[in-house]
Design a protein that fits this description.
alpha/beta; two-stranded antiparallel ribbon; 9 strands; Rossmann fold
């Protein structure tokens, strides 16, 4: 076993045996600064899954996604967009904002989960976004809990940052969950995009300082593919 793998295994064993001490470490986990105020104020953690729930199409989830793309351009980092329903419109964000994006176009939710597994395992991109907002409920129900814990294990090992956009709370291993608290109307089309970015509101609805991998997730993590 490689030295890095041994260190990871030791950390997992210590986290299970001393959860209180591990919680203190998680509280000190460095935040990933996206460049988007509504997220940076919330201090999105590295090495963890963060779920952002948008139950209605008018709440601003597409605006949030475009804001992340513009922030990546302004702050000089790259990101992956795993598009669960092949629904992203690059024209809405502009050519320049898309230059720093790896766009993975998927046909269904399970295909998107497989793509997320590969991206997070690779660990070369500091920010990965998994967009499942428009996937039908029948597909979302097929995503079982061990798959979420598998992704959490991968992102923890690489210390990347993963944002998952969902139409309802469903990411069981998410360290933090936010609900988009906006409701935009036709009149807002006259407002500048920068002002809309500043108006985005993401109340925190769930926060965990540590997590314990369930037995079924351990068996799932030994598989080389999902589905």
């Amino acid at each position: 076993m490689a030295a890095s793998a041994k260190v990871i295994k030791l950390r997992e064993l210590l986290a299970e045996k001393f959860p209180d001490a591990h919680a203190n470490l998680q509280q000190q986990r460095p935040a990933w600064h996206t460049g988007l105020p509504c997220l940076d104020e919330a201090e999105i953690p590295r090495g963890a899954l963060t779920e952002i729930v948008s139950t209605q199409p008018t709440q601003g989830s597409a605006l949030l996604l475009n804001g992340l793309l513009h922030a990546a351009t302004e702050n000089g980092y790259h990101l992956a967009l795993i598009d669960g329903r092949n629904s992203f419109d690059p024209q809405s964000a502009g050519f320049e904002a898309c230059q720093r994006m790896l766009w993975i176009r998927c046909k269904n939710a399970l295909e998107a989960m497989k793509a997320a597994d590969l991206v997070l395992r690779d660990g070369n991109l500091p920010l990965s976004i998994l967009d499942l907002r428009l996937n039908p409920e029948r597909e979302l129900r097929r995503i079982h809990k061990p798959l979420w814990y598998r992704l959490q294990t991968l992102v923890q090992r690489t210390q990347g940052t993963a944002l998952i956009l969902t139409p309802r709370p469903m990411v069981s291993s998410a360290m933090r969950r936010f609900d988009i608290g906006n409701s935009f109307h036709l009149d807002d089309l006259e407002v500048s995009q920068q002002e809309l970015f500043e108006r985005l509101h993401l109340p925190l609805t769930r926060q965990r300082h540590h997590w314990k991998t369930p037995p079924e997730a351990n068996s799932s993590s030994r598989q080389t593919a999902i589905g």
